[in-house]
Design brief:
The protein is α+β, with helices and mostly antiparallel strands. It is built from 4 helices and 11 strands.
Length: 165
């Protein structure tokens, strides 16, 4: 964390090659690792391609969440209301297609829908999971990270358990 004399605080996103976590689960001699250092002094590591291959999108998502703002997936689409399985696109997002899916999450999350959306000409896939009434969370993947090219492939990927965190 760096604080300037005028009180502005900065967070940093870094691409690091050759770093390995202590447990060896992330990184390696030739592997690229993404690192985010937040304004509060905390940090996180991730591997490129876990949900996106776009470093700028990844850093933006981490910064938004650090400041308590909706993350990238939350801005792509949301349930229409706190009981619906229908998804509505966020501002500037085009809804290409959507349908129900079963990601195999706990019975607590009975509302599960998937969508293919476009933002700034790029395709994204979203898994939306919600309680019967109320709470929901959203996860996004780019086609490269999910290894799929369309919504049918994404549904198969999610329902096979590969989309679970």
């Amino acid at each position: 964390m760096v604080e300037r004399a005028d009180g502005v605080v900065h967070s940093y996103g870094l691409e690091v090659r050759g770093y390995t976590t202590a447990d060896g689960a992330l990184g390696g001699p030739d592997a690229l690792v993404w690192s985010f250092l937040a304004v509060d002094g905390s940090g996180t590591l991730d591997e490129p391609g876990r949900w996106t291959v776009d470093f700028d999108v990844w850093v933006e998502d981490k910064a938004e969440k650090t400041h308590g703002e909706p993350g990238f997936a939350d801005r792509l689409t949301q349930f229409a209301d706190d009981r619906s399985t229908d998804l509505v696109p966020g501002p500037g997002v085009e809804m290409v297609a959507q349908r129900l899916a079963d990601a195999g999450y706990d019975a607590e999350y009975v509302r599960q829908s998937v969508a293919e959306v476009r933002l700034d000409g790029r395709t994204w896939f979203v898994l939306a999971s919600g309680e019967r009434v109320g709470g929901a969370f959203y996860e996004a993947w780019d086609p490269e990270s999910a290894g799929v090219t369309d919504l049918a492939g994404f549904v198969t990927w999610v329902e096979s358990g590969r989309g679970t965190p």
